[in-house]
Amino acid sequence: MRDTDNMEAEMEYDDGEEEPSFSDPEDFVDDISDQELLGDVLRDKPQEADGIDSVVVVDNVPQVGPDRLEKLKNVIQKIFSKFGKITNDFYPVADGKTKGYIFLEYSAPSHAQEAVKNADGYKLDKQHTFRVNLFTDFDKYMSISDEWEAPEKQPFKDFGNLRHWMEDSDCRDQYSVIYDSGERTGIFANDVKEPIEVEERAVTDESFIHYFMYFKQGENFSVYVVTFSPLMDTKDDPQAIIIWDVLTGQKKRGFHLQNRNLVLFRWSPDGKFFARMTQDTLSIYETPSMGLLDKKSLKINGIKDFSWSPGDNIIAFWVPEDKDIPARVTLMQLPSRNEIRVRNLFNVVDCKLHWQKNGDYLCVKVDRTPKGTQGVVTNFEIFRMREKQVPVDVVEMKEGIIAFAWEPNGSKFAVLHGESPRINVSFYHVKNNGKIDLIKMFDKQQANSIFWSPQGQFLVLAGLRSMNGALAFVDTSDCTMMNIAEHYMASDVEWDPTGRYVVTSVSWWSHKVDNAFWLWTFQGRLLQKNNKERFCQLLWRPRPPSLLTQEQIKLIKKDLKKYSKIFEQKDRLSQSKASKELVDKRRTMMEDYRKYRERAMDMYNEQRPLRLELRGGVDTDELDSNVDDWEEETIEFFINEEIIPIGDL
Predict the structure, then answer these.
(1) Do the Cβ atoms of 102 and 89 come closer than 8 Å?
(2) By the 8 A CB rule, do 102 and 90 touch?
(3) Which GO terms describe its biological process (predicted)?
């Protein structure tokens, strides 16, 4: 410093110049920002949040000692590495145990955000449910004012009436049609005379990706969609199968594709659980965490198939014989995993599980090869699910089984058995007294499929594809054959949700000519033949559950005759030979006349005071008004006089 001062003191300026001043004037205003002056330098300035926005804080982590710390780290790594690469972790310790929260640093902020979105609320076990937050969120939470502020009112988004089609005055159901070899799809309202197009569009071309999706209603009104796309799967980030939350758009969990079986998941009736089967393993997951139930899969050696009860959280599965261990069918209650019924079976070749729609009964079709015989014998093991200890009845069949189907809302089932050309159909009734009665058998039927009406009682026996589309319409209340018809080369049969109509169709996917769909009444009367170029598929729009109680439904059925006249009038109108255009024209004219008459009546009533004034207060609007003021007067008119001489008579 001393040398510097001496240097400044020894400085001299030529020609007597004064030392220049580098200070700003007193009135100087600095209007240049640092960003404008040093923008290129400030861009490289280290930011305080660098790295911090890639850190997440996980709370409610188990508190463990040094002996279990490595195992905990492996579990955490397995769960959170699905969202991105973890570059660093920190487990705070106090008194020889972890504190119950940890810090994880990802390689990118987007990975940290993905972890928060998907792992927050993850249920590790019964005592530990993760709460996951970004480290940078703590400043935001600490700066929240203690004074409550009313949230900003958000504008209402009107999505319209999503069930508007249920308000159709003629109660028309809707169906979708895929045609033009899958290139186009349309939505139609079902009408007796002809389909009414609601919407039609081309299908987006996504031929480069094979996909499918299905929806499931979950707990607390959440709805999930499952998508499948094997071309997007990666080893570290499972993307082949993804479960999404429809309401939030959030990805709940991804899965690898274990095999090419497209029956990937089966859901419990209440949506709380879903399950998938792999080799010797049955994995059951719970919502909304999407984690394994009790954090482990069921090890079931040789498991062949499983199925959920439609009415309860009960899984049925079967295991084939293994040396001296018999085959068995097991009913398991969830989430307790209690085995409520086990049925041992011997000499089993194959089993098929058939649940009744309400879960009241389970039929296990068992194919056996009895000792000393070469043929296959079939038994139906009927489980009575609503009775104590789940008793089992057995129905023996001496012929091969072609098809089996339960009545949707009842205790009857139908069986197609035998071999062509001697195919028989038998109808059975499961009674409350522990017996199963054969109601009726029809022989020599041309059928390989059974299609019950969704309301029960009526069914269609169909000989699809190789049987040339033979159809038989049956009323099972008295087992009468209502009609026998044919839709040549029919490949599919679809009942409408009400059970009033049924559609048969020839799909382009199975047959390249005569592609069309036909509409029938439940009695077998043909109403329409609809030809669509390269028609592929028809599906009815499902109806939501009725809001009416069972008592209200019974009352409506009881008083149905009161409404029959209205229905009959509409039926006669629909069956009229008048064209649709003429009917619409007459309706328009009638509506115009009604409106004109209302306007004329309004004007007439408004002019009433004026009429009274002009007529001296006498009300002449009614023919019998003011009778007391009437005066009777007789008026005689001289019309003609004729004189007839008497002498001329």
Answers:
(1) yes
(2) yes
(3) formation of cytoplasmic translation initiation complex
317-344: average pLDDT: 94
> Residue 342 in contact with residue 329, Cβ under 8 Å?
yes
CB 541 within 8 A of CB 174: yes
DSSP state of 444: S
Pairing relationship of beta strands 492-495 and 501-506 according to DSSP bridges: antiparallel
Closest CA to 503 of 534, 469, 477, 480: 469
Closest CA to 125 of 334, 314, 296, 338: 296
Residue 587 identity: R
Give the residue among 498, 501, 509 at the shortest CA–CA distance from 178.
509
Peptide bond preceding 421: is omega within 30 degrees of 0, i.e. cis?
yes
Beta strands 131-134 and 338-345: pairing type?
Answer: unpaired
Placement of tokens 């009416």 in the chain? 548
- Please check whether residue 367 is in contact with residue 389, taking contact to mean a CB–CB distance below 8 angstroms: no
Q: Which amino acid is at 32?
A: I
Mean pLDDT over 372-386 rounds to 88
pLDDT band at residue 305 under the 50/70/90 scheme: very high
CA distance 313 to 310: 8
Written as one letter, the residue type at 572 is: R
Peptide bond into 288 cis (omega under 30): yes
Q: Is the pLDDT of residue 625 over 70?
A: no
When pLDDT is averaged across residues 288-301 and rounded to a whole number, the result is: 88
How many whole angstroms separate alpha carbon 327 and alpha carbon 350?
A: 10
List the beta bridge partners of residue 277: 282
Which residues have CB under 8 Å from 52's CB, separation 6+?
Answer: 135, 136
pLDDT in tens, 468-492: 899 999 999 999 999 999 999 999 9
* Residue type (1 letter), 18: E
The DSSP H or E segment spanning 79 is helix 66-80
Interhelix angle 66-80/109-119, nearest 10 degrees: 100
In the beta sheet, which residues pair with residue 422?
Answer: 419
The pTM assigned to this predicted structure is 0.67
Q: Half-sphere exposure of residue 317, counting CA atoms within 13 Å on the CB side? A: 25
Residue 538's nearest CA partner among 187, 173, 191, 176 is 176
HSE of 434, CA atoms in CB hemisphere, 13 A: 4
Residue 10 has pLDDT above 50, yes or no: no
Q: Residue 335, preceding bond cis, omega within 30 degrees?
A: yes
Most confident of 15-19, 102-106, 258-262: 102-106
Query: What is the DSSP track for 192-241?
Result: SSS-EEEEEEEPP--TTS--EEEEEE-GGG-EEEEEE-GGG--SSS--SE
